[in-house]
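Folding problem:
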Amino acid sequence: MDQPGTQAWKCRRLIELGYGIPDWLRLVRVDFEAGADWWERTGGSGCPTPASIPADRSVVGHNLAGGRMTGDVRFEPDLYRGTAGCYDRFRLPYPDAMIADLVRRTAPSGRGRLLDLACGTGQLAFPLRASFADVWCVDAEPGMTEVVRAKAIAVGAAHIRTITVGAEDLPAGPDSFESIVIGNAFHRLRRAAVAGLAHTWLRPGGCLALCWSTSPWAGARRRAANMAERSRRGRTRSARLGRAEAAGP
């Protein structure tokens, strides 16, 4: 289950690599950010219904026991455990033009506090840090905040603070932030609850910015070509290593 653009790329790659799309594989396309009903799309794709799933079984990280889910999609709290280094290295940065547009629209005073909620490894906090006197990077996964701390030390950003906690448990009072940003993560949170908290946390006139994209393969032609070239180089290197191992010392 993934965004439509990402699933389309997966289909193309499976075909390009000669695997095809086997009958047992279900690639469900759900536009989470547009509010698509993932349960309805799942049922329409021939996936198991709640009645056919054992009571102690989870599917794709969502607990389906007990019938139709009516609340937000739930993700395992340690979903990215052990991946923070790779996440920081390989996740594409937000375009400079987008960051500049965000700063223009929100017009930070330079004296306020920014909250990067569900921050990952700081893909929004670091490019925005110069516009704020104080930056809070909050994520539920310790590995992510550890990387943020290391990066902050490396660039001398002493005003960046990390907090390892779930979004709803953040100890912040009313009017705490001039701006709040959430990058490619709002769909993973309890959206109604977090939106309500963000409204309380923001100072009067503050801004909440939800930033996301579809897939790097669905973007501008040049960007997609660069990603395709990076993927090709990775496959070539893997093939060379395989031949070297087969040849032996």
